[in-house]
Amino acid sequence: MRGLSWPVRQRRATPSVTTLTRQQCAWLLAAAALSLAPHVSWLPAWIMGFGFALLGWRSLLLWRGSAPPPRLVLLALAIAAAISVRAEFDHFFGKDPGVALLALLLGLKLLEVRVTRDALAVVLLCFFLQLSLFFEDQSIPVAGLALAATLSGLAAMASLSDANGRAREQLRTGTLLVAQGAPFMVLLFMLFPRADGPLWGLPADAFSGRTGLSDTMSPGSISALGESSEIVFRADFDGPPPRPDQRYWRGPVLTDFDGRTWRPRAFAEGAAPFYTVYGPRLNYTLTLEPHNRRWLLALDVPAAGADARLFTSDFQLLARQPVQSRIRVELASHPESLIGLTESDAVLAAARRLPAAFNPRTLALADELAAGAESHEAILRRVITHLRQSELIYTLRPPLLGSDSVDEFLFDTRRGFCEHFAGAFTVLMRAAGVPARVVTGYQGGEINPIDGNLVVRQSHAHAWSEVWLEGRGWVRVDPTALSAPRRIDDGLAAALPEGEALPIMMHPRMEWLRGLRLRWEAVSNAWNQRVLGYNPQRQKELLARLGLDQGSSWMLGGAIAGAGALLFGLLLWWATRKRRPADPLERVWMRFCTTLARHGIARQAWEGPHQFGTRIASEASMPSATREAIRAVCEDYARLRYGPKCSADDMRALRTRINAIRLP
């Protein structure tokens, strides 16, 4: 039939795209590399290797000027990456597989990038990968790496909008964007309502590779920490810090012994154990690093507060939940107090118990030392005298011991660390009929002269003993001090035998390096306290100082909006203000044009120096000498601006010619 025709489907118009330049690709590679590199400490090695291999492949293609690989190749690589991540983590859900997939997808997307739209997707992937850094670490170096990666990503975006611009100008644009956004970031950080708990949460595997004090003790378990400089906590005392011999930080109390390993017995929380206060009270703030345990590691003896549920029956201080983020707690201690004056028979019986058929030579020695003793105090004095005269050697590298570990230490190897001394002493006392137990924790600490905090590290891990004496309760005895008294007052390095290899940070010649470490740790502590430690309580204190603590959420929102509007206005003024030219020649020219404009001789915005001078020369209403002088200045400026380098003599001559002009 005539007049009828089938409608023809119109093909959708292809959006206009722009092929990327080498400089744009280089910025993308830099942003991707800086975003991926910090994850080397957390992602599996093969994922990091695969990711950097993809970046290297893209760099090689850029250097050779070759086209990206076919899409089928990229699809095959994507499928292989997904299967590998699934095999590594057993699932796709969660932080670790998510970050791994993000890292690999970034490399694959960069490999296929052809046009501006693809490049923008790469930059956004970089930003997400930078954000995931803070799930693992929020330290100053990580924040600096994230900032560098952000700057490179913004510079890449600037290059996408200005393909012919210089790299320096593009980096300057990225830096300017960060500087403009920083005030708004600080405003929201300070005033936006904060939730309880850490902002980034705790990684599920945050403690899988960490070492530290355990709730059990066996030969070699504490000496393994002797070379670790990792910070466990910091203590900030209201007054002078305690003496070195009072710096015992109480951790797990170990009562049960199977012949080799010490373990804590079942304790009752909230028992509020009896103690008698003696001596001064020390108030301090403890900043405890995360260790995924409930121990608060208070200075011995901790003062009982209003919340007795935080105490165990053996006088260990506990948090309500495992410490999975850095916390600050206000504590107090009475180092000279007496504890356990009225102890139960069950506790004392457990503190005398020893396994059968272990350490026979030690048991025989205990019988010999206890023979004829009129009291437990007398037995204690005899055991202390015997150990002091035994010439046992304190060493960071004790030999391995067998099943009768106490016998081998006291009679064969005679070399050990604090756990050997504490364990052997406690067994001797129990075998002699005196209740005794092992206490683990930390001893000592170093004062940081920069911020005044007392810093306790893993290398300060220690074990000591407590014996129960009638009328005195549980009395601390440090058997290590019997053979190495300098360990208590001067630290681990001073107590080790002469000639034993020291960890590098304990070497006497590394005083300068320790000084640098203390300075850096003071800076990191300030970052932790004032930035990472900015919690809801501190925000409330800030709002109270600003007079916003009594208002509603609408008032707080209005304050944020008002401050944001003020910042925006300041930035707008700064961006639109007339800037003074940085070039001296340009400043002379602008001053000359401003002077002419005040006398009714205005230069149009579109006029260059030649056009302006030509127009003025044709003005009949102006004296010819004035017209010629203005035209000459315009010609001189054009010659100096677009000619060879302008010298100081040229500048003086131009100023002289300008000053000679007589305007009506």
From TrEMBL:
Domain annotation Transglutaminase-like: ranges: 410-481
Keyword Transmembrane helix: yes
Gene3D superfamilies found in the cross-reference section: 3.10.620.30
Keywords from the named record: Membrane, Transmembrane, Transmembrane helix
TM segment ranges: 20-37, 70-87, 118-135, 141-161, 173-192, 554-575
InterPro entries, per database record: Bact_TGase-like (IPR052901), Papain-like_cys_pep_sf (IPR038765), TgpA-like_C (IPR025403), TgpA_N (IPR021878), Transglutaminase-like (IPR002931)
UniProt xrefs under Pfam families: DUF4129, TgpA_N, Transglut_core
Protein's recorded name: Transglutaminase
